Amino acid sequence: MTWLRAFGEVVRSGLTIEETRLEPLLALRTAAGVAIVIGPALWLASPAYAAAAALGAYSAGGATFQRTCRPRKVIALGTGAGLALSSFLGYLAAGRLVTFLPLLAVWAFAAGMAWAVGSTAGIVAATTVGSMLVTITLPTSVWRALEHAGVIALGGVAQTVLILLFPIRRWGAHRDALADALAAVADYARRLREDPTAPFDPEPLVSARDAAAVTPSQARTRPPVLHGPRGLAERIRPVVAALADPDVGAPAEGPGRDRARELLDAAADVLDTAARSIRRGTPAEVPPESIDVLRVDKDHEVLEGSARQAAEQLVELLGEAMEIARSGDESGKTPTPPGPASAEFLVRPTMLRLVPVVIRAVRRELRRDSPVFRHAIRLAAVAPLGYLLATRLPLGHGYWAPITSVMVMRPDFHRTYARAVARFAGTLAGVALATAMVQALGSGTHVCAALAVISAGLSYTLIRTGYAYSQCFTAAYAVFLLGMGGQTWAQTVPQRVVLTLLGGALAMLAYVVFPAWETPRLPGRLADWLAANGRYAAAVLRNYAEPTREHHADVRRALLASREAGAAWQESYDRARQEPVRPRGLTSREAGEAQEALKGFGRAAMLMESQPSRADVRFVPESKRFAEALEADTAQAAVDVRLHRNPDWRRVKEALHAWDGAAGDRSPVARRGAELQKRALDDLATAVSRTPLERDVSSAREEQRVRAAGEAEGDESGGARRGG
């Protein structure tokens, strides 16, 4: 992708309105937290204290809107504490560049490394850098610095108290994640009705697993309805795939295919009903016509063999889904079973026990090629540089430039540039709106305070519709907050616009100077996914050979590792497609073909997992031999892909040939799955196998194709403008 086209995609992405469900009650409660601290602070103290309290309340409230399954009160309280600490240290060092700039660089580096834990930690840590930069009033002593830090922390405490007193959609994030998992499988069943090989995005199942992890205290109060949906979705997904697949399930045409379509439709209806019940916390009734379809007649059922087995499995699993839908949100607490907690639920560490987890995660990212480490280096350089440049300009509030840089910078190229564009556009609209409101209503202290609270509420309401639209009201909020302290719009508006532009430009320039491109990392990500898929497929085959509890546990662990590697590949692939970087190792077309091949490989393993070995077949030696060959060849192929060598499937071919020669195949489903896996591996080899000359020619052709597509798009836009 050329720089011009990449920047066009950045602008489009930054200004896109995301279709999401608004949460006005949450926004109202959080805005009330801002109002609660501003009002008393204005009455009892001064506008400076009110601004400090508003800083803590606004930032802590915004943190509770992050997509996380941690309790909102914990997020608000932790954010308030982080803001207070960073503000206290910043106040102590403020006024002396020789002490403040090194402190700012170290704090910004630590905030950048917080992305090793996750996006929520990274975003919250960035807000603490912003609070360190905002010096509302220069303290004259350590006690005064501690006093202002306490006022800022009070804002986080106020948000926490409101969350405790007025809970809204308790367990809402968990409900949404588990309901989304069931809805995703329902959508998958409907797509399988028309396309038996339709792909499935595992992201909802990954989110559901994260939502299912709870602390021991949460486990005692978790609603009973949230216990089984994740596992149910996990079990139903391979069964509907096996039923729809013409190779191992229903025939491609005829009455069997029609019956399979009916079952898939009914499964989708039942799963959607269960998802609605979980999301709303109320019982729901499954359509009677769907229940009629799910009755399997032993004497007149048209499906036979493995297809009939899949249909019976599906009906049994959907019975559990119907129980979930009918139970809704029954009152009562979850009993705590005896024995170790980890045996009954996924354990999420408490905040104190999270410390060693954070240390290990940060330590893993302390390497030069890590995107998180490079992001931390960029933050540590840009924050002090932006502050130094802005303070040298003949403008006030120089902290706006580094705050802009810190808040828009992300570990990847596309989001950094898109947020920079969105923040500048939102700031322009926000200061224009604030200016108009001040001129229309006046600039008194109490008027500006009321307008600041209203702007905060609107910002929270739109926080998930797009960064630009939320930022519009955030900018207005900042202007009103400064107006509350006696500064006119003529002083703040030009400064805000110029310094926002400076901060966004520094953030963009930092990524060009010290980038963390994903394009060169694609071969490594592909190799990791290939090796993980190979281990998963081998575990499934070993379970066919010897279906034991230990082998079944191995299948589950390998599946989760494969899913994690696939998610890492998908994230890198999506980012690489948006980067203005010449392909290295894998062109975009080769990466796309390799991705489809590995999806087919994993799908074949999933189909085998959905058809467990029959009770009368306790040992399938051919399956075990093929598993060993498959794991060995995929592990070696992963090394070859990393080193840009062509993979070879010699062991797999020999094992499959020996399986063909074995007398009396006792597991036709496993044999068919092995054949599908071999076909997928051949497709993968075709996708990545190139001579050096072919690879260079392919890269050059792809660059020409992308350039031609960009020129054609430009011509079409120009023609449209001329036609208009």
From TrEMBL:
Membrane topology of this protein: Multi-pass membrane protein
Protein keywords: Cell membrane, Membrane, Transmembrane, Transmembrane helix
Keyword Oxidoreductase attached: no
Location (main, coarse): membrane
Name of the protein in its database record: FUSC family protein
Integral membrane bound transporter domain boundaries: 386-509
Subcellular location, record wording: Cell membrane
Segments passing through the bilayer: 31-53, 74-94, 100-117, 124-143, 149-168, 420-438, 468-485, 497-517
Keyword Transmembrane helix: yes
Organism: Actinacidiphila acididurans
Family to which this protein belongs: Belongs to the YccS/YhfK family.
Any matching Pfam family: FUSC_2
